[in-house]
Design brief:
The protein has about 325 residues and is of the alpha/beta class. The termini are far apart. About 45% of the residues lie in helices and about 20% in strands.
Length: about 325
């Protein structure tokens, strides 16, 4: 596969991969049934973290471009449709819109904001439940929002600072133990959810070699504290050093056997930090760290979302 990624771009690296593969598939360079490189192979080829490639492949699967079969690999499953098909007409309309916005000197990041705004306005008329997520640093709230999106029919809004006090959300999910003031009109339902390192993260930490040197990197000091606690619990024999993403440099990673970084760091960290970590992961292990809503709390959230979706369909909210 021949394409490059641009760490300085406003477009997330995983999305650049999705765009490039989609373009090759639609252009016939990757025909129906063609096998894609493994996650490991493409990560090594591009010098990226495997988690970045895995996320890109997952997104391509959701788009119906590829099919991933356990033990066999990932294969192109997209078949070109007739030029007059609804999908082709839609893609042409989007291409025309992008061309118009480019002629007005809007950047891809600005276009994304416009599209997101309009889509939110559209989905707010449907049965989607609007959920506010709060009570932690950006890394944690982003992971919690991703988890809620996977439920389907949910629009999640992370709030690092003050919660909305205008009743604009249907459900507010607060990290348990967060003691900041909660406005009375945050939303119709309020849940406090416990968070914890995911089972996959715990396994990765437990497999770290005793006595090895690990550098943990996060955007916020609060998320570094969560990393420190997990390391004490699951990898106490490892020598740990912590760095803020804005302090990250190639020199700062010298001597590190492994780097511990938040899952999805590509869309959270500044471009320079992403570039440093991508270069590092080309030759060294990069361990992704993820905290999300734990299983018990997630059951309560699922029940609340299902109840609110039913109420919205009946026009009760």
């Amino acid at each position: 596969m021949f394409f490059a990624v641009d760490p300085q771009s406003d477009v997330a690296i995983y999305q650049q991969i999705v765009n490039a593969v989609c373009a090759d598939i639609r252009a016939g360079k990757l025909p129906y049934g063609a096998q894609l490189p493994t996650v490991r192979a493409l990560a090594d080829e591009l010098g990226l973290a495997r988690g970045t490639i895995k996320r890109a492949y997952d997104e391509l699967g959701k788009l119906g471009m590829i099919e991933m079969t356990q033990g066999k690999g990932s294969f192109v499953c997209y078949r070109a449709e007739r030029a007059d098909s609804r999908k082709e007409r839609a893609m042409q309309a989007i291409d025309n819109l992008i061309s118009t916005l480019e002629s007005l000197a809007f950047t891809p990041a600005e276009m994304s904001i416009f599209f997101d705004l309009k889509l939110r306005q559209l989905t707010s008329r449907d049965c989607d439940v609007r959920v506010a997520v709060a009570g932690g640093p950006e890394e944690l709230l982003s992971a919690m929002a991703d988890q809620l999106y996977e439920l389907g029919g949910v629009i999640a809004y992370p709030y690092e600072d003050a919660l909305p006090a205008d009743g604009s959300v249907d459900l507010t999910v607060l990290r348990a133990g967060w003691h900041e003031h909660v406005p009375e009109e945050t939303g119709g339902t309020l849940l406090r959810a416990a968070v914890s390192a995911t089972p996959d993260t715990i396994v990765r930490l437990a497999r770290l070699q005793q006595g090895s040197s690990v550098t943990a990197v996060a955007k916020s000091e609060e998320y570094l504290d969560l990393m420190r606690k997990s390391m004490r619990d699951f990898a106490p024999e490892v020598r740990l050093r912590c760095l803020r993403a804005d302090e990250l440099s190639t020199e700062a990673l010298q001597g590190a056997d492994t780097v511990l970084a938040p899952a999805g760091f590509e869309r959270l960290f500044p471009p320079q930090a992403v570039e440093v970590l991508s270069a590092y992961s080309a030759a060294h292990p990069l361990c992704e760290y993820l905290q999300q809503i734990d299983g018990g709390s997630m059951l309560l959230v699922r029940e609340a979302v299902s109840r609110l979706q039913a109420q919205r369909r009946r026009g009760l909210i």
